[in-house]
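Per your request, structure below.
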């Protein structure tokens, strides 16, 4: 995958979110890794030159939560189309969810996804295996064998493990294998028939609501089980102020617990649903504006570790329905960075700290070598202009599905160049 010639990025605004360092300079790539970086970089005579023109050069984004249809639902998204969408959005590594057909609960299927991704995807794809067999929440999957086959984490995707004994057993086994458990914190019994955030707005729309307690009770239970077992645990996405307080308390006790937030819960709130707009039907649901602000504060304070796209492609047949009947989910790989940059533009967070949540922290939690501008680090890099304005046209998205909540939204920040393992896989300068 590497380029035969070294590549020099010059005239760049270098941002290393791992150290917080920001400076003008250049970066030299050779044999798929960063050979040199800093204000003074000498290029080899045969180096290919990429003039960044003052744009930001940073590590590529690492998205810890993306649903991909392949195998079993290639009409929604393939590994190839997901890779193209990711590259255009600056995502160089995708963690794919196990909600496929068949479910990723067998080492042979993990091996298939890895091979298929190597053959068809232009970005890194790291599959997460099922936490329980068939995603049924009843019997723990073979964590050791699945990890040996290449699974990077264990999760039941959009399903929660309601049986506390099963979760306790999984966390205990995960501790012994130093594996990461990623859990969707939502009690399905409390969710019931709910389709959006419980409150005044849901009542006005005549839609059944989902209380915050559906999230907080499951999260509180999980944290207690982490304290009991010592297993590494990551709450996939939190969405309300009470959840942030629970995670903060767990971290204060020194528990091995981290958490993420969907870009949708940082950039949008329940009012965006408007007149039953199904592209805004998500899980967890869009919350009240006070909760959105609490999520931003928790991100700034380091309580929330990572931002995910929660990329979940749905076709027309599953979204062009009455709100209560439509499937949850929105595509997000291609808009993750642009939507997140709204927080920088609003002066709520610095760009290095934002990139840390999009790149460095996911790498640290997953045990990956990326997420930093350092000699010897993988050359998974992006060049982007954080101030380029554009209006999103969903028809131009590279994802096979077009269910984006940002259609016709005014956004700022576009990726110019994406490099994976030393090879340029996306170059907007050559796109007509």
């Amino acid at each position: 995958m590497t380029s035969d010639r070294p590549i020099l990025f010059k005239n760049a605004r270098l941002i290393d979110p791992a150290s917080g360092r920001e400076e003008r300079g250049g970066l030299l790539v050779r044999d798929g890794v960063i050979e040199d970086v800093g204000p003074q970089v000498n290029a080899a005579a045969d180096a290919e030159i990429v003039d960044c023109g003052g744009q930001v050069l940073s590590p590529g984004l690492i998205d810890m939560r993306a649903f991909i249809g392949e195998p079993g639902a290639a009409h929604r998204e393939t590994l190839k189309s997901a890779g193209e969408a990711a590259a255009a959005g600056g995502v160089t590594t995708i963690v794919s969810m196990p909600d496929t057909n068949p479910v990723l609960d067998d080492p042979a299927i993990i091996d298939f996804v890895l091979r298929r991704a190597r053959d068809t995807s232009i970005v890194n794809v790291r599959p997460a295996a099922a936490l329980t067999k068939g995603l049924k929440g009843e019997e723990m999957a073979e964590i050791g064998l699945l990890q040996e086959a290449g699974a990077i984490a264990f999760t039941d995707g959009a399903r929660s493990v309601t049986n506390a004994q099963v979760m306790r057993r999984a966390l205990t086994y995960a501790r012994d294998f130093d594996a990461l458990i990623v859990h969707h914190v939502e009690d399905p019994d409390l969710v019931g028939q709910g389709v959006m955030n419980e409150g005044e707005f849901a009542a006005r729309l005549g839609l059944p609501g989902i209380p915050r307690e559906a999230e907080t009770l499951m999260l509180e239970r999980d944290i207690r089980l982490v304290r009991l077992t010592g297993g590494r645990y990551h709450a996939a996405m939190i969405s309300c102020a009470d959840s942030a307080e629970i995670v903060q308390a767990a971290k204060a006790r020194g528990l091995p617990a981290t958490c993420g937030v969907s870009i949708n819960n940082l950039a949008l709130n329940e009012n965006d649903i408007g007149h039953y707009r199904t592209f805004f039907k998500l899980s967890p649901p869009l919350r009240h504006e006070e909760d959105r602000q609490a999520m931003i504060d928790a991100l700034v304070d380091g309580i929330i570790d990572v931002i995910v796209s929660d990329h979940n492609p749905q076709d027309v047949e599953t979204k062009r329905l009455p709100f209560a009947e439509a499937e949850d989910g929105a595509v997000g790989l291609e808009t993750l960075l642009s939507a997140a940059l709204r927080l920088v533009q609003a002066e709520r967070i610095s760009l290095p700290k934002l990139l840390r949540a999009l790149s460095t922290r996911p790498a640290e939690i997953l045990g990956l070598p990326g997420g930093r501008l350092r000699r010897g680090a993988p050359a998974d890099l992006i060049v982007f202009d954080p101030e380029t304005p554009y209006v999103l046209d969903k028809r131009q998205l590279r994802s096979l599905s077009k269910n984006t909540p940002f259609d016709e939204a005014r956004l700022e920040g576009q990726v110019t160049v994406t490099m994976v393992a030393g090879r340029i896989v996306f170059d907007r300068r050559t796109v007509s």
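The mean pLDDT is 96.

Regards,
D.
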